[in-house]
């Protein structure tokens, strides 16, 4: 019954093979261990007068790395298992493109940020965190396309997505010197607009043919809650993973924790008020409860105060939940954007809020609140930007937000155009949201009654 | 078919909204970053002569915090998904009340323990751990009421539960100066008796009308195992999270690990021996395997010895499993206490055992075992209690247990009375344990056969 | 309908009880806290001139321990839930034997490695990691027997498995002085051949009678992905948990991370190329994506270079996936080895690859790459083996691999013979892969339609 695309058989294996071999060659040419990971660390230690092995930064970043890692693979993966017949594709293709993306990200980010004098990229644990971050943008974009694209298209989406990410990240963080430790702008805003534009280019007018597969079943909703909760719980680690050691990391955790807590109550309130009989909708609970984490990404290290964080969580979840109720149907009907997971509500809008909050809180930062040294440390007003004031920093933050949006829109249009070529083996409209197109699905799908 | 309570529509949103706004206001008035999380940390560091940012306590508490966080949201949440038609409510309402409870706990515990000279509560990572701990008591109480109360009732239960918790914790830890790092008394005993008393007040004589929904289905039992395992695995972190740095934390991990390991074998033994044909019961495996962790909460830091920990796990699981077999039906029929999750067996009895074990091991602590300084460090025999002996400490530990029980019983009766008012939109007897009362549940609940 | 073995009723409880009591007695006689976990640590600290409690090794090993712990209980446990009617047994018996195994491992490994002058085993967090490692070997062996043995047989398998493990580990790591931080040889190769040989001895010619239960259902495959992902994500922690502090641990993480990333792409490629219509097979995705982690276990600390790690992941997953496609059916038909989870493909072959890779990279290690001190540190060329060269070390690594295989084969034959005795209550051929033999399974297994 499933029309399997004719050229699918050779495409996916070919792409995976060729690209993996390309990775091996590029890593062979470019990637080496950094000083903390090299056996010559002991000599380096002596040179730098480091007294014990335990001052290796590994011990302070690694637990954060593992939390972020869980968010990428279990968090995003299981969040996308909610469809009744696309759970394999949700968690499986997430696994595939994340595993490819982190390799490509190590190279792309390496060329932009970690190139050593000898022309080699030197990697350590912090690079692994950044690669996970980078790939998150593509996984967000996948959310908009979930169930409507082939794995090969996803590989292409990821190849270009990671490339674009590395460039915009370089512009925003290095050239504009904006702060964005949790990636409200560079990850969420960029990723969401990238995915939404692709979805807009790939618009399927006859998608209603697979309408019967677009919902969830009882247990697929419970699976999705695994994703939601691991994202929710580890988000403080996400927003603090590459923050400054010391007070910065500490503050990022507290701010994110509070914003997320406020998001939950608000989401329950709006979800209940919007349905007849006041019933709750699992779609909202699975997604909008996370909006506070997204919106806290830019300002996580700033002195936004605990109640400021609560307000950010409060507002972003109101907007996010209303987005699911009103905007998603409107976008599909009027703007011709089919957004399977509602990433516009979970990543685009809260991401933009996060960027704006970051710009405002940066612009209004003062020595009386931060302390003289604290201000310099928090915003890195050193070297090339030693003379920048908080006010001007606010302007650069805002500029960063526009760069992220622009990269998402333009990049998405470009990549969407490429993905529209009829060579990628994407499923027919009637076979969307159906694992049987790409997966062996055993007969007798349900547990038998006895 | 579902009688939706008429006044439900406005209640939940109103409560969530108003309370979240109240939180924002109270946080605005009272809560600030502590020194380790403030940008002025760099000045503080210089004053205190701390050489690197890496000596910020963040790095030593944060991994423990994350483990505890997972226990609260995934552990408790998924443990309560075992019912065939109440998985949304199990994991979803757990999410709601935990997210509310941690905010309220930061305030309540802050007022009692962390109030600075300027009248502000100064928070850091340790407060986040304590807030998670505090909310655990309410989640335990939820276990007794699972499926029989409305979300608004749960919010009320949590509001009062956290308040009572903060008071009894203050009395037990500060006034009585009892030790309870893993909360056998302050968390488990209190939470369980609080929940059981509420359930007793809210007794439903006609609950058998929803008997067909009280069991599990195959996959809901597997979901519940996610909760069980994350609780079981991270329990050593729970019992050591706020223990003393150094040997105390170390010992708490070993003791808890061993008690839990013994619990598993014992539970399998009793479960198998009690059923006809020697078959195992998932209810026992999901719950009684955790009894050792509960029972190790008070004495986790003490020199109870490795084999002592095994004995504690061994005994508590025997009692817990037998509780599920004999006591739960007896309590329902004779005492009119309907205990959905069997928290009497998993938290009340093992919690009391934990309190008793703590009292006995404290009373029998000696300088020959602990060393002179070790004894002082372990029991904090300093300042106001510098002259206390181990023997007397044992008495205070026992007193702490009584305080916990008393707070549970009296508080539960009080709050139960409030929750009995006919204004909370609780489900009819025939609609208990049914997600359809509070959640949009899609038609076609099962994966289709093709 | 299920033939329940007659003598099953008393066996499991008796074994669990007697063995748990034996553990208590043995722990009472032999096990004590080590210096870092004892209240006398403060005196020890002063003696050793350690300035703060935070230099307690606890803080640097504990997060690794928790990751490994999750792999053992959730990773292995959920990976084995894939069968449609044996999910309880998969996760439940995994829980039982792991909880027993870690206790016995603490004793066995303690006697071989941690015996103090006073005849006591002194335990700390590192022992807990090692106990988890040790039990992993038995859980791998369980994979071959999944669904075909009784819980009592599993307890026996674990008792002997842990014993054999402790001996071969002692020979390989202490006597041969081979390096194997992630256990390609001592854990995976040994565990796999141990399990396969047992499965060969217990060959069931009429197993096709339960053929209808050998597959998965849709949601059981999603449950298994939880296991896969937690294993995949935390494998860098596994291979680095007991590696040298400093650069060694750092390098182990990077190498494992990269090998695993390459494994994913390769597995998708081979899985797709091998099926008609290019469809993907969940069995491959659940298992062969992990082959890179297994194959990286021995050489994880070596200077294998980042691209070397990618090549290891690439090759091991090709072999592993082809193993599932061709070897497993061949082994069942021709060699009479029934391997339920395909551990030959996930653990035996990648484990052997790991051992060979370790031997080759060790043999080719040079001072120009490692630095003089780096070479000594990485291979511990100190004390008794101070004069060993990298070349010779390669030979000892290869010898270690043979020891692991030999222990697996001989031990498996022996224990298989014991398990063949008709006293263990194993299920009839027609009842294999069926939870109803050992578990109370509620009627009405599926979520009702309404």
How is this structure best summarized?
The structure is a homotrimer of 450-residue chains. Chain A contains 16 helices and 2 strands.
What does this structure look like?
Chains A, B, C: The chain crosses the membrane at residues 12-31, 64-83, 95-115, 127-147, 154-173, 185-203, 215-234, 254-273, 285-304, 310-327, 398-419. Chains A, B, C: It holds the Pfam family Ammonium_transp. Chains A, B, C: This is Rh family, C glycoprotein, like 1. Chains A, B, C: One of its GO terms (cellular component) is plasma membrane. Chains A, B, C: Belongs to the ammonium transporter (TC 2.A.49) family. Rh subfamily. 3 copies of one chain form a homotrimer. Chain A is mainly α. In chain A, 67% of the residues lie in helices and 1% in strands. Chain A contains 16 helices and 2 strands. In chain A, strands 1-2 form a two-stranded parallel ribbon. In chain A, helix 1 (8-30) runs parallel beside helix 4 (87-113), helix 3 (58-79) packs parallel to helix 5 and helix 8 (218-240) packs antiparallel against helix 9 (247-274). Chain A is globular and about 65 Å long. Chain A starts with 7 loop residues before the first helix and ends in a 30-residue tail after the last helix. Mean pLDDT of chain A is 92; it is low at 445-450. Chains in contact: A-B, A-C, B-C. At the A-B interface, helix 3, helix 8, helix 9, helix 12 and helix 15 of A face helix 1, strand 1, helix 2, helix 3 and helix 4 of B.
């Amino acid at each position: 019954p499933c029309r399997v695309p004719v050229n699918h058989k050779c495409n996916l294996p070919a792409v995976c093979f060729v690209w993996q071999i390309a990775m091996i060659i590029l890593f062979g040419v470019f990637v080496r261990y950094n000083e903390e990971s090299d056996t010559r660390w002991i000599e380096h230690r002596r040179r730098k007068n480091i007294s014990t092995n335990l001052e290796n930064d590994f011990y302070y970043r690694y637990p954060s790395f593992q939390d972020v890692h869980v968010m990428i693979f279990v968090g995003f993966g299981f969040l996308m298992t909610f469809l009744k017949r696309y759970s394999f594709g949700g968690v499986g293709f997430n696994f595939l493109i994340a595993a490819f993306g982190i390799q490509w990200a190590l190279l792309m980010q390496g060329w932009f940020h970690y190139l050593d004098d000898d022309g080699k990229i030197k990697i350590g644990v912090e690079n692994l965190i950044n690669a996970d971050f980078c790939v998150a943008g593509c996984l967000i974009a996948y959310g908009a396309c979930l169930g409507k694209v082939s794995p090969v298209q996803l590989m292409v989406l990821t190849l270009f997505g990671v490339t674009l990410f590395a460039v915009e990240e370089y512009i925003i963080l290095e050239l504009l010197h904006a702060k964005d430790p949790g990636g409200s702008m560079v990850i969420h805003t960029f990723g969401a607009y990238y995915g939404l534009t692709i979805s807009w280019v790939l618009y399927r007018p006859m998608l209603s043919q697979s309408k019967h597969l677009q919902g969830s079943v009882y247990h697929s909703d419970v699976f999705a809650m695994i994703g939601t909760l691991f994202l929710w719980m580890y988000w403080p680690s996400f927003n603090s993973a590459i923050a400054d050691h010391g007070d910065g990391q500490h503050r990022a955790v507290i701010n994110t924790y509070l914003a997320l807590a406020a998001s939950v109550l608000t989401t329950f309130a709006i979800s209940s008020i919007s349905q007849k009989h006041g019933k709750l909708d699992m779609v909202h609970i699975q997604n909008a409860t996370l909006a506070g984490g997204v919106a806290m990404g830019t300002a996580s290290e700033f002195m936004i105060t605990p109640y400021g964080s609560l307000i950010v969580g409060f507002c972003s979840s109101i907007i996010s939940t209303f987005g699911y109720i009103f905007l998603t149907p409107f976008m599909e009907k009027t703007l011709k954007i089919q957004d399977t997971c509602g990433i516009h509500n979970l990543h685009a809008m809260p991401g933009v809020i996060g960027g704006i909050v970051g710009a405002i809180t940066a612009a209004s930062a003062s020595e009386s609140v931060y302390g003289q040294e604290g201000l310099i440390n928090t915003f890195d007003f050193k070297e090339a930007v030693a003379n920048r004031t908080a006010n001007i920093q606010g302007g650069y933050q805002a500029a960063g937000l526009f760069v992220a949006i622009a990269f998402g829109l333009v990049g998405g249009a470009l990549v969407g155009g490429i993905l529209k070529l009829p060579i990628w083996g994407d499923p027919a409209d009637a076979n969307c949201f159906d694992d049987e197109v790409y997966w062996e699905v055993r007969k007798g799908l349900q547990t038998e009654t006895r």
